[in-house]
């Protein structure tokens, strides 16, 4: 049986999504570990050849060259091999979803399924912390020491090696369900609504401030953009705000982790630093930028500067761009991300009306817009551009949004 190119593209994207969700424990899927590289790269080569043959189907824009140039920026320093590998692979997918737009659907199920698993483990760790530490946390030895301290502060890792990563997987699943709800697609309300509430409650339990705040901002902004009528904007926003407040109050009263997260928003830690050490990290990044302002110190140099500490990044992507790639790299990435967001929004505006409700195009353009706003917001206090499972998904969704902009523009000429 001949495998269609669209199906092969979907298989590649599905396998990439699977690799992203098992990042913390790749041996769940790949044994030996190098099979991950063999499988993904083999699929990518075949799909890449197909893209090259059909490149005339898409009109190449300036923004595409920005994305093609991205891997070169990684070569300016000592980027992690696996990080570089997946950025290159997802740029292939960036073009893939422009040619085979239905292939984007393949990212959905791995994130939803894994979010269910890690959410269940998160609640289990809340109820039975000693058993979790003894039998589950030992699967992630590289994050065990940090995990002990976080659990003592009512911050939960779930089935990952860090509580921030746990929060992000759950947040992505929340976005996927939220877009399904507001786009009025075909779904079982008895399944989707309880699952959405379950993920929301788990995200609060994890007690990670940055992703929670960025999620609320991105969902609210897109909800307002989705409804052209001011009256409907107010009605929709009030509905979700009331539901959110009720859930928050219930969780605040019942779950210590939620109280901890709220307290971290309104009061400093024991050292008097509400930023949890981020101001110190930002200062290092700023000093690195000032010493080499034009081209920076090279990709990965910030991590080298923090050798011997538990910090993995500046916790502000914009400052880390300045430190590692200088003003040249900072402007490059900023233009690329803003252009991607603008083009996606232009495409989204054309399909946000009721007549497109429930369509594949509206759903994934909404998801693309939500995730882009989320990444650009969370980049102020986190480091999503420096974690391939987040940056890779961002790249693919940007590709879809830009591809749909090209299709819509072509069809309206």
Describe the SSE topology:
Blueprint: H1 5-21, H2 35-53, H3 62-74, H4 81-99, H5 108-127, H6 129-135, H7 144-152, H8 163-182, H9 189-206, H10 209-226, H11 230-254, H12 256-266, H13 278-291, H14 301-305, H15 317-351, H16 360-378, H17 388-411
Notable traits:
413 residues, mainly alpha, 71% helix
Explained architecture:
The protein is mainly α. It has one domain. The chain has 17 helices and no strands. The protein has helices at 5-21, 35-53, 62-74, 81-99, 108-127, 129-135, 144-152, 163-182, 189-206, 209-226, 230-254, 256-266, 278-291, 301-305, 317-351, 360-378, 388-411. α1 (5-21) runs antiparallel to α4 (81-99), α4 runs parallel beside α17 (388-411) and α13 packs across α15 (317-351). The longest helix is centred in the last third of the chain and has 35 residues, at 317-351. The protein starts with a helix and ends with a helix.
Give the gist of this structure:
The chain has 413 residues and is mainly alpha-helical. 71% of the residues lie in helices and 0% in strands.
Strand content: under 5%
Q: What is the string of helix and strand elements?
A: HHHHHHHHHHHHHHHHH
Shape summary: globular
- Total count of helical runs of at least 4 residues: 17
Largest sheet: none
Kindly report the average pLDDT value: 85
- Low-confidence blocks of residues: none
Radius of gyration: 21 Å
Count of folded domains? 1
Question: SS-based structural class?
Answer: mainly alpha
Number of strand elements = 0
What is the share of helical residues? Answer: over 70%
Distance between the termini: 39 Å
């Amino acid at each position: 049986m001949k495998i269609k190119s669209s199906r092969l593209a979907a298989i590649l994207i599905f396998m990439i999504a699977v690799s992203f969700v098992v990042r913390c424990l790749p041996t769940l899927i790949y044994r030996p570990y190098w099979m991950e590289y063999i499988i993904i790269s083999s699929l990518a080569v075949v799909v890449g050849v197909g893209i090259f043959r059909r490149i005339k189907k898409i009109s190449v824009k300036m923004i595409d060259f920005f994305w093609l140039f991205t891997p070169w920026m990684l070569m300016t320093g000592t980027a992690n091999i696996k990080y570089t590998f997946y950025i290159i692979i997802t740029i292939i997918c960036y073009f893939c979803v422009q040619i085979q737009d239905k292939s984007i659907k393949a990212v959905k199920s791995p994130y939803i399924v894994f979010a269910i698993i890690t959410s269940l483990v998160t609640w289990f760790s809340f109820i039975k912390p000693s058993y979790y530490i003894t039998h589950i946390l030992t699967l992630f030895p590289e994050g065990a020491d940090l995990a002990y301290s976080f659990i003592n502060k009512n911050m939960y890792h779930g089935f990952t090696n860090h509580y921030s990563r746990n929060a992000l997987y759950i947040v992505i699943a929340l976005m996927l369900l939220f877009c399904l709800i507001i786009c009025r697609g075909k779904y079982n309300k008895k399944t989707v609504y309880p699952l959405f509430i379950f993920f929301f409650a788990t995200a609060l339990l994890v007690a990670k401030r940055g992703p929670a705040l960025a999620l609320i901002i991105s969902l609210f902004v897109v909800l307002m953009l989705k409804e052209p009528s001011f009256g409907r904007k107010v009605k929709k926003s009030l509905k979700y705000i009331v539901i959110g407040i009720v859930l928050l109050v219930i969780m605040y009263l019942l779950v210590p982790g939620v109280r901890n997260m709220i307290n971290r928003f309104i009061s400093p830690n024991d050292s008097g630093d509400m930023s949890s050490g981020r101001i110190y990290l930002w200062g290092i990044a700023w000093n690195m930028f000032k010493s080499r302002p034009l081209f920076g110190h090279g990709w990965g140099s910030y991590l080298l500067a923090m050798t011997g500490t538990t910090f993995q990044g500046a916790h502000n992507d914009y400052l880390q761009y300045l430190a590692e790639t200088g003003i040249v790299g900072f402007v490059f990435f900023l233009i690329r991300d803003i252009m991607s967001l603008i083009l996606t929004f232009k495409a989204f505006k054309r399909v946000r009306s009721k007549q497109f409700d429930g369509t594949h195009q509206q759903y994934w353009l909404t998801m693309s817009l939500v995730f882009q706003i989320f990444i650009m917001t969370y980049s102020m206090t986190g480091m999503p551009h420096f974690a391939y499972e987040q940056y890779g998904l961002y790249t693919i969704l940007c590709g879809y949004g830009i591809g749909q902009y090209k299709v819509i523009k072509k069809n309206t000429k």
